[in-house]
Amino acid sequence: MNILFLLSLLLFPIFYLLIWRKRLPLKRLPPGSLGMPVIGQRLGFLWAMRANTPEKWISDRAKKYGPISKMSLFGKPTVLVHGQAANKLVFTSDGSTMSHRQTESMMRILGDRCLLELMGQDHTRVRKALASFLKPDSLKNYVGKMEEEMRLHLQMHWQGKQKVTVLPLMKTLTFNIICSLLFGVERGPRRDSFVRYFQQMMGGMWSIPVNLPFTRFNRSLKASAEVQRMWKQLINEKRIELENGASSHQDLITCLLSIHGEDDQESMSEDEIIHNLILIMVAGHDTSSILITFIIRILANDPSIRAAVLTEQEEIKRSKSSGELLTWEDLAKMKYTWRVAMETLRMIPPVFGGFRKTLEDIDYEGYRIPKGWQIFWATCMTHLDDNIFPEPSKFDPARFENPASIPPYCYIPFGGGPRICPGYEFAKIETLVTIHYLVTQFTWRLCCNDNSYRRDPTPVPNQGLPIQIVSKEGSAAI
């Protein structure tokens, strides 16, 4: 009896291992290394972003491991993917296999009820509510108001100047447009407070999430709390305005407050409204301002591109009487200008990549990505693939004369499929209106010959792109 018992003790682990081996997934983990605990590949990735060499960093990994590899980023086991198949995987997910994944610092600053955190029906519900205001049929009514913000911006920051620094001015412009059109916050102390807290909040978006006094992350959290407090107050004021008969489409906030479900309750909770307003502030402020800044740089560097844009915009200007505002139909005529913008986004996408979290094991390219891991996908790798875009380093707006010729999920500056950015049309209008006024009222040249830029984490041109400007009005050099 004792001998049989001892034999069973010896044989049981063997039988267990045989059974366990049969249950192991047939597909293995992607190649690569998770690196040192906690640190992983974070330092190498952030260094590549700062040095503006992330494409090379990814290409070097692909040469070593192939198109899919494992690593550790921001303290999480991560699988790096890129290419058309990777983009399709990310953008066609229905929310049951993977979800958005922000860094911890971004999640705590932006809030956990924004679109980047929501899944399934909650994501669909909130996205639908935001799209109800940001769709073209609604936005065409706000072209004039956007143009008024642009005219005031030029009066305050460009006229009478000989030199300006483009990026901070474009960030000021886009923030003011967002405040006016989307939030209904007019110029004054409240908007000034939003600007101040917003800048503090942005400072810690990619910082180490250690909430200690005097750290960037601590300052960002405090600023985020102040912004949310101000939103709560503004939302209460908008509710009162609606009760007194105000239009439900005077701005995004009143639009969201006016959407009700079957139970006649507001479709979005107050936290969802606040957290998504913060997300829109961050996304709209950075992406549009960066796009416009780099278009201005391209127009300074390439006289032929500038001449073609100017010809198109001057023709539209001549069709308008003095002081007449642009219309939706005018924007539709700016086809070449928008192709320039699309080519700018191809070469310098404001967002380099993004994170997702797997909700279950995913089979991809012959490997198993385990549940709970991060997926990091890189936008620019298809943008710079010479099999998709011949001579990818050449700036050529003609690539977009027939957008349908570009394979799906290969050009993704605004996402793709059901996950395309709901603010796409808003950014397009903002860009076209701005470029129209700049090229018809000013000429400019770069103040330095350094065309380099860094990613921090979005593209930032050297010195913020200082330029010398001359007014076309002819009265003075401004």
Automatic annotation (TrEMBL):
GO terms for biological process: sterol metabolic process. InterPro entries: Cyt_P450 (IPR001128), Cyt_P450_CS (IPR017972), Cyt_P450_E_grp-I (IPR002401), Cyt_P450_sf (IPR036396). One of its GO terms (molecular function) is heme binding. Its cofactor is heme. The keyword Heme applies. Pfam families: p450 (PF00067). PROSITE patterns: CYTOCHROME_P450 (PS00086). It is found in: Membrane. Keywords: Heme, Iron, Membrane, Metal-binding, Monooxygenase, Oxidoreductase, Transmembrane, Transmembrane helix. Heme binds at C421. GO terms for cellular component: membrane. Its main location: membrane. It is a single-pass membrane protein. Belongs to the cytochrome P450 family. This is Cytochrome.
